[in-house]
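Catalogue entry: protein
Contents: sequence, fold tokens
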Amino acid sequence: MCSRLKLAFVIVCYKTAYSLALTSSFVTNETMKISSNNLLQTETDGVDPEKRFNGKPLTSIFSSGHNLRNLDPDFHKSIEYLVTSKGYPFEKHYVTTEDGYIITMHRIPHGRLTEQKKGSLPPKPNRRVALLGAPLLTESTIWVMDFPNNSFGFILADRGYDVWLTNVRGSSFGKHHTNLSVYDIKFWQYTFIDIGAKDLSAQIDYALKVTGREQVYYAGMSQGGASLYALLAKRPEYNRKLRAMAGLGTFRRSCHINIWWLNSASTLENYLGRLSIIEVMPKISMLDRACDIADKLCLWYTRTFLYTDIKYLNTTRFPVYMNHFPSGTSKMNLLYYSQIMQEDQCTTHWNEVREYDFDRATVTGRWTRARYNSVVHRPPTTVPDTISSVVKPRGRGSGRFLWGVFGDAKKLNPEMYNGQTEPPILDPQNIHVPIKLYWSEGDRYAPPAEQTLLKRELRSIVAEYRITDPAWGHYSFSSSPYNASVFIDVADFFDDCSRGAEYCTFRPF
């Protein structure tokens, strides 16, 4: 009965996706108007037709029976291939955090070497260092999935920056630990506060050590920006290690979110509390298959969960995007999102963003099953010393399932926060890095109301870049053929700060 219901659901989703795709039009080189408080009005499409993949509309691909992997050479390729195939150097680095997570960083030390430049002197050393932080459920690949004319990592490298692409614990490039495996419940006890305070801090320190520089430039999108806000609020000494920050669709709370499947904090919290998993949305092949053999279903998924409008999505490239999405996170991290979605976070306590509230978590006091799609690690030989009392593998010896009995619900905040019954406040007054906000009227994940609150509480915001077109959604910042103008403006902002521009000198230490 259950399998029949699942099959019926897939059929309905497929038919819905097919009808949506038939009514959608292919993205063209139309212009997009962008306004900025600090710049003149700009009109740009950000597209070089000669370098852009000249694919067919999805309706044509589907009706003619083409296989997507034969149409795009970047389909099912690694990040190393995506970088080196475009003519850029590529390096892989491993960073160990203070609590034992091993994070993979990817580096593009300089721009492309053309045929004329090959054999000449190597690029000059001591380039300015730029770190890029990715959104929730994504990875470093998001900054190099397109072409040199509209991929953030490539644009910064060609502008003279030493580009470091960061990753986080729990993602595809953060599933290793010095002592724990992904089967350990303790491995998944983190939020983006930990990502900022531990993962980002370690990667900033590592990049500075390798390059010999004293400061980095940082650009973060969505959670990539929120985690840096958390780092600077929690460990203000890191302000001195950053020269400037560009925040693309960033936030500190998410109570203004306007997505139908995330429109209620209580609904999200209750749903997650009922789920028996502790790893959420790891990288799996199912979405790749959907994009390979049922591209209309893939389009439906993309429009439903990522884009509200595909006007600024290159629909012939999204099978490449889905190769690298989702990349996984922890259930605890999403529970923290449900906490910062509470209404009082935008009203009476808008300036009191706190760390994770362990006493509100809904993961204690019952049997729980955890399912994993990644089976390369063995089950743990020791039991985590926090809330789990029993962990043992079950199910045909595959190692894909864990069963655990969680202990009685008890007050954990005093234990986790040195006796405090309430989680500590992440004080925005500790953030001193010059910040430029990039936001869109059509962003439903980090909407204009959240940007207004950011401008009220962060004193170091020195400029903003506002996109007025409501069709420009949250993920348009990372995966659109029209986003080059945004990335170029970020590079201009970093250049201004490196030259000591007056508007980029707010550092009240």
Notes: The longest strand covers residues 101-108.
